[in-house]
Amino acid sequence: MSKQSSSPVLRFAPSPNGLLHLGHAFSALYTWQAASLLGGTALLRIEDIDAERSKPEFTAAILSDLHWLGLDWPEPVLHQSQHMDAYAEAGNRLRDHGLLYPCFCSRSEIAAAAEGTDPDGAPLYPGTCRHLDRGEQITRLERGDPVQFRLDTAKAMDRVGMLTFTVVGPLVTDRPQVRHARPERWGDVVLQRKGTPTSYHLSVVVDDAAQGITHVTRGRDMEAATDIHVLLQMLLGLPSPIYNFHRLILDDAGKKLAKSRGSESLRGLREQGWTPEDVRRAVGL
What we know:
Blueprint: E1 9-12, H1 22-38, E2 41-46, H2 56-68, E3 78-79, H3 84-96, E4 100-103, H4 107-113, H5 134-143, E5 148-151, H6 153-160, E6 164-167, E7 177-180, E8 190-193, H7 200-210, E9 215-219, H8 226-236, E10 242-246, H9 266-271, H10 276-283
Parallel strand pairs: 1-2, 2-3, 9-10
Antiparallel strand pairs: 4-5, 5-8, 6-7
Helix pairs in contact: 1-10, 7-8
């Protein structure tokens, strides 16, 4: 499932559920710059596992914006929607080891029962369905109840023991440091859903291994998610890349740019007459 690279390999992996903004531009430019500093290669990956929100026109816009910024990449580009079988296989391996269980709780039920939040601020799943007996699981699955499959994080951690990962920063060429991962603060995360054999967490570790990614550059807002990724890498026997967490581009209110908040797109800036040099100056590269 994985392959080793003789030289550094990095990746920029946007989701085609909207137009890129300055935050994406910074992350892409930063990744290509890091690849150059390391004497390696930057890949483009399209993370389109969300079939409802991912649109071909957004994929086309991503390619256009990145080319406009002066970036290029090896072909073919990996589209996650074309690799569902690989994610299903990884999920089945976890299931065979008794590490996944079906959860039938609704969001409102989880919110009502949760005690505390995960690092993203979402209600922390209390493990309700972890205690369902096998008979009830089978009955509800056969009945077709809405279901998602969660990782039994405590059982998984008992299996792998203490987890660490390697971080470099602020520059990707800085001296490596070892950090301890804390997956328990995420609780039992969702890895698969009915009709979708993967989640972001599962697909990203499978793809990083398959593409031989040696260094992962991502925003500081994704730093905590590394806990789950390192755990999954250990469970699936996959290599763990070196991680580098870069700064975020913030708006005038001090909040990170986001598609969901209507942050101005690169397309909009281009239409206003911005040049690639203007973008680089705006993001400090």
